[in-house]
Amino acid sequence: MRLRSRAARRAGLNVLGVLVALVTLFPILWMVSTAFKPAREIYSLTPHPLPAHPTLGNFRSVIDGKVIGLPYWNFLKNSLFVTLVSVVASTLIALLAAIAVARFRFRFRTSYLIMLLIVQMLPQQAMVIALFLDFRSLGLLDNLAGLILVYTAFSLPVTIWMLRNFVAAVPREMEEAAAIDGAGPMRIFWRIMLPLVAPGLVATSVFAFIFAWNEFVFALTFLGTDTAKYTLPIYVTYFYGRGTVDWGSIMAASTLFTIPVMAFFLIVQRRMTNGLVTGAVKG
Amino acid sequence: MVRTVSGQPGRIPGPEDPASPAGRAGHRGPALRDVPGPRQRAAAFIRRRRLTPYVLVLPSAIAIGLLLFWPTVQIAEFSLQNYGLPQVTGVAPTQWVGGANFSAILSDPEFWLSLRISLIFAAVVVPLTLLTGTLVGLLLNRLGPKMSAFVSSTAMLAWATPAVSASVIFIWLTDPDGGIVDWALAKMPSWLGGGAHWAGFSWTNAPLPAYTLLTALVVWQGFPFVAVAVLAGLKTIPAELHEAARVDGGGPWRIFWRVTYPLLKPIFLVLLLLSIIWDFGVFTQAYLVTGELGNRDEYNLGIYAYDRAFTMPPSYGIGSALALILTVILLIITIGYVRASVRQGAIQ
Is the predicted ipTM greater than 0.85, yes or no? Predict the structure, then answer.
């Protein structure tokens, strides 16, 4: 009797879980499904969850880039370039700082950590005004290098904070043992620290990747009307609000833009969520 | 504020720390100079690197200083200047105008409208996000390991969806021509609020529907983070506590408020403050849903600042003053967030 009620409760909870998962996934599924639908089905009076006659036409028009006059690869290249350079730069810079705050006690250490907590909350739509004017006089507008600088700096507070925990988890005794055996600081870094924090570097760089890949405000403001320099988020919104809205193409563009992030994210999810909760961050 | 933070007890540096008195210069033990045994060599090695932490921190400090800290100072500076198109093109010099930008803002009904929208939006979305996230977190804790991993993975996919994609998806879902939400509402029986009048309903042309849509969007993207954080907190509560409460005859409601909530209170406080910061300052989603600076009566504070700074004719002075107001409001909440994090032992 008791057992049966327990099984029933378990089944009820599982149903609830599936329901939550479905509601959560629905917008993403709808995006993908719309991307494969021909226009006739997209604007049909009775929408269907799955395309009846799946087509690649929307993807073709996104990749050809007829709307904007440049192929998709151009924007993919821009996004990849900006993202990869800023991820490498910010991860390296953050690793140095993380070693400092995790391994050394020094003056201003606490102030530095608190400063990191505070600056990560500064609103980007406020900072963009001053940075726009600065970059204008430096000739960094309409320039991917400007975005790289901003993305590197803006992902630092969170990446340092996350990496700090990974560095702190490396047993200090290992470094001390190596030092006793006569290893220099460089050797200790390459042979002990780096291999042991490598998983942390992966998780952290995924965060920096998502930040740079998704970033909208700075790209929107800095890239202005130079369409050839657009990154993918700006390309996705380019379709939007220009005469008749072609939802099939927008969803196809959005799918091509979103899927890599999700795939990337699911691979490292477990490690990532731990880092997220300890670092208390949202992208 | 900082004083209470750095005065935190329990952070006594260990003997191996360079900052501890034994590690500082001028406290060299005589034993060291005699025979450099391996232990002493290691100690000397650590000591010699007194400057190391500063060198390591320097690149990040420069980057953050130049690209995050300095622009904030500049915004404060510009907010007191008549920085506009003639100034940026060099036709006329910038002049200090004192508080003129701020007095213009305070007598500007659009500013008060945008501030009110930001406040109401945060007041609605923050509790909704926390409630949804907590309920899903509690559910995840009760599910079996496989099911829990599955549901939290789907939730984290919503979290990982880029703001731009999430916005265009939700705008498409509620599109008057072909959007599934209007279709479903039109099909719904009238006692559920449905009806034919929903067909072709535009969600983005008036503030209330636009912010209803934005609420759904931001809650959808925000609840997974809360759920995962609550789940992580629940995992730290010993199962015996809940069992004991159940044996004592407590219902789930009572157990939550008497056992779970008090134990997770610090986590809830941090989540509350983070949600306020994020939702009060929401930009990308609000910018896209309100039609890329299309509808002035739908501006929140951040969009209004952005619009005043960049829409022709640009007024960087007024825009900076608005941005400064937004920044100061967020910094006040951030101070609360930092205090809560420090109390939780985030800084060690």
Answer: yes
